[in-house]
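Exercise: predict the structure of this protein bound to magnesium ion.
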Amino acid sequence: MAYIRALRLVNFRNYADATVVLAPGLNIVVGDNAQGKTNLLEGISFAVTGSTPRTPNDSETVRWGQDFTRAEMRVALQDAGDERRVAIGYAPGQKKRLTVDGAPVRSLADYAAGGAGVRTVTFFPDDIRIVKGAPSERREFIDVLLSSLRPSYARTVAEYAKVVQQRNQLLRRIRDGLSSPKTLSTWDRKVIELGKTVLAGRAAAIEPLGAFLESSVRALYGPEKAALRYSYSAPLENYAEALREAHSADIERGTTSVGPHRDDFEVLLGGVNLTTYGSQGQQRLATLALKFAAREYIRQQTGEDPILLFDDVMSELDEHRRGYLAGYFLESTQSVISTTNLEYFEDEVRRQARIIRIASGSVFEEANSNASQ
Ligand SMILES: Nc1ncnc2c1ncn2[C@@H]1O[C@H](COP(=O)(O)OP(=O)(O)OP(=O)(O)O)[C@@H](O)[C@H]1O
Ligand SMILES: [Mg+2]
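Solution:
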């Protein structure tokens, strides 16, 4: 199974130049507040996907006062002994430079879909917005997941968003008497063609994801049944019809009211919608369970375990759940888990893990830490 051997971060967030060696299985990143634990997990994700999952604005990752950031990574591939070396350099205002084994990578979408030789599933405390927040958060969750599996899906999603924007501009022109309504049908065809691909991708994923969610929730939470339910602004069968029926309303508003950019999915626990009615704790556990579901889905689709990057996941859980999670992480191909408190992991778990200490953007590996590679 593929895993990350080592990562070097240069001018990334509060890291000037730091190298961290990772082991297969569980890696625990420990340090006080504001030392760089979250930044390290973000850096790993940046190296694996070519962008940061924490912000749409990559320039935030550049160390203050510097004009570029760089990450280098060595990945152990499935065939024992085989290794991939990747590097990503980024200077705000310029195109990112990615290389795999020294060869330039042209497409970021291709790279993000396993180009590094590994995939990741990340959990950051902010991710609770997937369950708690607006529909766009849930759409992004599923689109990023599917994009990590298929670059063609990523391209279709981007193209669809562009075409919807263009259609919206046209709708406003028609409203203002600058274009003829007849021109709309050409855009409808484009929107429908791309939108159908997006819908089909999501529809195929939502059922297995729901099943994986159900079993994760059972393990993490209790016997109540969890489920996902996709809610269509227009179902696949009469998408074209719905788009046509909305013409006059769309012209009036100057926006496209049906299609996958308006869809949502419900996260249900015991039949109750957690976005609307969930407690903070339920929303957090459901978010965690969704990430586990994403991991199982990637595993099912690719036959490979993604790397788990879970930030500060132990702090708000009780001891029983912490024990369950530790076991889950130990059994994964590779997981990198941050904490301020090593006590959250039992002695036996710590003995099997690699411990990485972080202080002010520097990495200290423990002498007795599991360094097996
Ligand atoms: N672009 C940047 N350049 C330099 N420093 C940055 C940059 N972005 C963030 N930082 C700083 O990096 C420090 C470490 O942040 P990080 O979020 O990794 O801490 P942490 O160890 O996860 O802390 P906590 O336990 O509180 O979550 C913070 O003080 C933050 O202000
Ligand atoms: Mg943090």
